[in-house]
Write a structure and sequence with these properties.
heterotrimer, A alpha+beta (167), B alpha+beta (236), C alpha/beta (545), B: Ubiquitin-like (UB roll), Alpha-Beta Plaits, 2 domains, 16% strand, C: 545 residues, alpha/beta, five-stranded mixed sheet, 14% strand, globular
């Protein structure tokens, strides 16, 4: 059956990357999660345009795509901050002080998990377990992992990160 | 001898069944009451509400009768002190999950959750109510979706997908945060895929989906169409 | 590549490696990398280059050596000197010591510790020895010989018989006999079968599968290919957490290498057997470790479980007969074929054969990855291998099985580690997370922690789990905050019983275990909380109110 190709939402060249990911899977419906990964890797998050594009290309109902995008916590529908700070909340990190780290961030920076500072500089996230339990408690700053972190270490990093960007 | 026919015992009664039937179907055929909310004849069963759990001799777990096929010589118990206790607790969980206030509900008197609670003699809810703040979507010209009364049985999702073929409805999020949505979680009235056929409204067991203009206790639902539609589609 | 060619390639690679007098093995698994292992490797390479010693010594990135708490780790071979907490500045000293043949004292980690002596490495035999990014290195260590031998010398039935004789049971947690699972799939008349590797390691506090995938990815592929041959499958999927980017990258590299060498793909080793493997990424959903949810996710749908039966062996991926095993289960297979099922069955206990990999973490001196024979006691693991509780504190409990498991108190520390014994204590083997807790951990807070996890990870499909986990969490939160009354414990128990018996899948059925086991062994802590006191002195400070 011949079907019209779903056009990307904009001229942005990066849609080609997403389209290529779907093409690799023959635009089969089971490529949905792979396609959403590709969108998030390329654009940082999933917006409505991208969900519509993916749904059209894979011939999936809009609600099914939205249902999948919100079921998996790895996906985010909001644009992330310039920097991300992921606090691991696995068991080992929990008993070695992750709650104290999160409490400090809330107390001193008014940040709760899932939130971004109002200037869009920093997003705070939590992870179920990053699998580096030997180094608990663990925080991932902009994809770089730091272990055996004290409240003091974290405060220093926050200050450096926020000050650096203020310049 | 016909290999396709099985005989089994339900609550001590000998009954016969086709091999492709479920325990629930056979029980109801024989006038044996088994409570259920997510199950609806004509839609694919999902085994989610857990109200139709039964005891089967030799099985280590309770089994959802809506998806469990009959087997030769099976001995099924649909009523026991333990089952009734679990069923009442499951209803309590549903009542405590959202905001079910029968006295002001369009489906008062026609609600499956309400009538099951009466039938199972549920007198009070001893879990703390969660009182979530949920929206009412009245954007559709003919229908209203009140998430406060939704029990996530997904009958609307299935009827829209399996019978109407529109797949306007689905579930977003997960766990206690899960909610039914139309299209990209947009107002129902803005949905591009909805055909306004109203099947979802009529399969909804509670007052979560209703027709506009109905007042308290006025929303009776018609479901006679469903087995008919299913039959007409499968026998084509 | 045929068996002959494989053996020639192995001999050639070994000969090449012998040309170099010594090797420096730098751990490049995620834990050591994050401690600076990458920079250490670079510094060592540079140092050797500057001194013109590259023909004398080679630096090799290897997988996990186990003692993550002392990372980054470097091992000097052939002497076997082990160095811990290595920094790039240590490179000159380490290089100098190679010439002198004496270890660098200040960095040395004794390999004579019980941490090393008490372990038995089968699954991890190559971890810390082979370069996970080089197929040749795996082949030199005997890799893919089991697969090619099976293809050329054994029938599928013989392979299954060997696995059955070994007594291997599923390492994902439930312990289903692997041979039985394989033979069920093998007997299905389905022409289009699948083999799936469950690498969705979601237990918080567990990193066994990650370490295996990062350290020795080819072993898992080889195990899957053997399983595919035995069951008659032609396609395989590895479902890995997206949170493990290094494991994903190494797996993809390994698949490419194996395909190029003809060890995966069409007509493997010139036989009619073909097997294709694809990596599929998870996206942050613990419930996808449940097999029916995992399959839904591979199919691109919401990862909600469905009632079983039908089991995957009968109706799995896209309705086809499917074999699902965990990473560690597959990693055992090449050894079982190499050494024989009977050899494997001699290790362990009557009901639980072989070894188990554990991720040892929490309040214990040596944290890291260990592999021990089944039947070893928890006490030996924690106090001998783990070196006990640091800072002079008292041991309180060990948590096994993650959110599905339970806490085991001191009086049961002599329990042998096997499937049945741990279950009898109200815990479970689980996938292998072992978290040690000392007197500073409040058990009510810990139960709340696990219920927060289960509540957040519940898929929401069935009522008992969706609403029940939320209620359990709320009740525990009130207890921790000292806002609960005397009737709360009874409601906790009643709800726990409901979830256990009426939930649709294992997540909901086992979600109450952390509550029930702490109520059973540490009830006094709950009762104290009802009176507004925390016996561990943990609640009310910091972030734990």
């Amino acid at each position: 059956m011949n079907r019209a190709r779903t056009a990307p939402p904009s001229e942005d060249k990066r849609w080609k990357i997403v389209d290529a990911a779907m093409r690799r899977h023959g635009y089969r419906r089971d490529a949905l999660i792979e396609a959403l990964h590709s969108v998030q890797e390329t654009f940082g998050y999933l917006d409505e345009d991208s969900l519509r594009f993916v749904a059209g290309a894979l011939r999936l109902p809009l609600s099914a795509v939205y249902g999948v995008a919100t079921f998996y916590h790895f996906f985010t529908l909001k644009p992330p901050g310039r920097h991300t700070c992921v606090v691991c909340t696995g068991t080992a990190c929990h008993i070695k002080g992750a709650p104290e780290l999160l409490a400090m961030l809330e107390r001193e920076y008014g940040l709760k998990p899932g939130e971004t500072t109002s200037d869009g500089q920093l997003s705070l996230l939590t992870a179920r377990c990053v699998g580096s339990c030997g180094l608990a408690p663990v925080v991932v700053f902009d994809r770089e992992l730091a272990g055996k972190l004290s409240v003091e270490d974290l405060r220093r990093w926050m200050e450096r990160c926020l000050a650096h960007d203020a310049r | 001898m016909n290999a396709g026919i099985k005989t089994l015992k339900i609550d001590g009664r000998d009954v016969s069944a086709r091999a492709d039937q479920t325990i629930l179907e056979v029980a109801r055929e024989n006038g044996i009451f088994v409570p259920s909310l997510c199950y609806l004849e004509g839609l694919s069963p999902v085994g989610a509400c857990r109200l139709c759990l039964v005891e089967v001799k030799g099985a280590s777990r309770l089994l959802p009768s809506c998806v469990t096929r009959v087997e030769e010589g099976m001995e099924v118990t649909t009523r026991s002190e333990r089952l009734e206790r679990y069923r009442r607790m499951i209803l309590e969980l549903l009542f405590s999950e959202r905001n079910h206030i029968c006295s002001v509900c369009v489906s008062n008197g026609h609600c499956e959750l309400q009538s099951l609670a009466e039938k199972l003699l549920l007198t009070h809810v001893h879990f703390p109510y969660r009182y979530p703040r949920l929206p009412v979507d009245a954007s559709h010209p003919r229908f209203v979706a009140d998430h406060n009364r939704c029990i996530l049985c997904t009958r609307c999702v299935r009827v829209c997908d399996e019978i109407e073929g529109a797949h306007t409805w689905d579930v977003m999020g997960r766990g206690i945060e899960a909610r039914v949505i139309t299209d990209l979680n947009q107002p129902w009235g803005d949905s591009e895929s909805c055909t306004s056929c109203g099947k979802c409204v009529h399969v909804c067991p509670t007052g979560a989906l209703s027709e506009k203009g109905r007042s308290v206790a006025e929303m009776a639902k018609r479901r006679q169409f469903l087995p008919y539609l299913t039959m007409m589609r499968t026998q084509r | 590549m045929t068996l002959d060619e494989l053996q020639r390639a192995a001999a050639e690679e070994r000969a090449n490696q012998r040309k170099v007098a010594c090797h420096l093995h730098v751990c490049t698994a995620a834990s050591c990398l994050s401690a600076g292992g990458g920079q250490v490797k670079q510094a060592l390479e540079q140092e050797l280059a500057e001194r013109g010693m590259r023909s004398f010594c080679q630096v090799k990135g290897v997988g996990c050596m186990g003692l993550c708490s002392a990372g980054p780790l470097v091992a000097a071979q052939p002497e076997g000197f082990l160095y811990g907490h290595v920094t790039p500045e240590d490179a000159p000293d380490i290089t100098r010591s190679l010439v002198e043949g004496r270890p660098v004292r200040r960095l040395a980690v004794s390999t004579d510790l019980p941490f090393f002596r008490r372990q038995l490495k089968i699954v991890l035999e190559n971890a810390g020895r082979v370069d996970p990014e080089r197929l040749e290195d795996y082949i030199a260590a005997g890799g893919y010989a089991s697969l090619l031998r099976a293809l050329s010398e054994m029938t599928p039935q013989e392979v299954i018989r060997e696995v059955t004789v070994s007594g291997l049971r599923g390492r994902g947690g439930a312990g289903y006999p692997t041979g039985l699972k394989w033979s069920t799939v093998a007997k299905s008349p389905d022409a289009d079968k699948y083999v799936v590797c469950n690498a969705d390691e979601g237990d918080p506090g567990a990193f066994m599968d990650r370490a295996v995938l990062e350290s020795d990815p080819h072993r898992v592929l080889e195990g899957m290919a053997i399983a595919a041959y035995a069951t008659g499958a032609r396609h395989g999927y590895i479902y890995v957490r997206a949170e493990y980017p290094l494991a994903v990258a190494r797996l993809r590299t390994a698949i490419r290498q194996a395909e190029r060498a003809g060890l995966l793909g069409n007509r493997i080793a010139g036989t009619p057997f073909s097997f294709h493997v694809e990596v599929r990424l998870g996206a942050g959903a613990f419930v996808c470790g449940e097999e029916t949810a995992l399959m839904a996710s591979i199919e691109g749908r919401r990862g909600t479980p469905r009632p079983r039966p039908p089991y995957p062996a009968e109706a799995g991926l896209w309705g086809h007969s499917t074999l699902i095993n965990n990473v560690e289960t597959f990693a055992n297979v090449p050894v079982i074929l190499r050494e024989g099922g009977e050899w494997f069955a001699q290790i362990g206990t009557q009901t639980s054969k072989g070894t188990k990999v554990f991720a040892l973490a929490g309040r214990v001196l040596n944290t890291g990855l260990i592999e021990v024979p089944m039947g070893i006691s928890l006490r030996e693991i924690i106090f001998e291998i783990g070196g006990g509780v640091p800072e002079g504190r008292r041991f309180k409990a060990v948590q096994t099985g993650g959110p599905s498991g339970g806490c085991i108190p001191e009086q049961y520390l002599d329990t042998p580690v096997d499937y049945e014994s741990l279950a009898a204590l109200g815990s479970m083997m689980g996938s292998g997370g072992l978290i040690v807790m000392d007197e500073s951990t409040c058990m009510v807070d810990l139960a709340r922690f696990f219920l927060e996890f289960s509540k957040g990870e519940s898929c929401g499909k069935c009522v008992p789990c969706r609403v029940g986990t939320a209620h359990l969490y709320d009740l525990l939160d009130r207890i921790v905050r000292g806002e609960a009354n005397g009737g709360t414990l009874a409601v906790l128990e009643e709800l726990s019983d409901l979830l256990r018996h009426t939930s649709l899948c294992g997540l909901g059925q086992s979600a109450p275990n952390p509550v029930l086991s702490t109520l059973k062994y540490f009830r006094q802590e709950y009762e104290a909380h009802l009176e507004g006191r925390c016996l561990a002195g943990a609640c009310g400070k910091g972030g734990r109110a």
